[in-house]
Amino acid sequence: MVSTRIEMSLSGSNENGSGPGRKRREKRKARPLDQIALRDLALSYVARFATTGAKLESYLARKIRERGVTEDGDGRSVELDVTGLVTDFIEAGYVDDDAYARARTRDLTARGYGARRVEQALWAAGVEEQVRADNAPGEAESRRAAMLLAKKRRFGPFARATEADPDERDESDFAERRKLREKQVAAMLRAGHSFEHTAFIMDAGAQVDVDEWLAEAEDEAKNEERGTEGTW
User: pTM score, two decimals?
Assistant: First the structure.
């Protein structure tokens, strides 16, 4: 019985030691790129991801480094027009830096990040300075994002109420609270919020104070919007 199994195993093996039980599929090397293949890659990329012109160009340059380019009849590498391809995509509306910046700003502020982090993210994506400025979060958006982060992390007035009476806390307790406040302030600043917004939230006596602070900025934004709509 054992010899039969060995024979069956050997009969299913080839000279390289591979057989039905050990199928090894070598990874096929991707074909070098020509202009048509490069365009197909670009189309696939913009169909899957929101992007900018700079990010698309960087992606295509990386693919060219990885796969190389085709050769002409004389064995010379074909010139690929990456910049022209990206320009065509922008003109066709497949890539829109302004729309990307608007969506990215909305996403980051909704997650509790401040204006500075938004600016950094857009800069890293290759968004031009004027487009970054046009899509920077306003005062109301910035305050809302700061309040959202404080709520999520239970900072300032959003912290859980302590059971101990304030008058009964000893000096060591106040020292611990001071350290905690410093850590929370640092977290707010790392998230891109201004020191002014951070200080207001951390010093707020109650959640309602933060709500009123946000409502004030939202009212001002609405009034400015009405004033802009009324001008010709």
Answer: 0.78
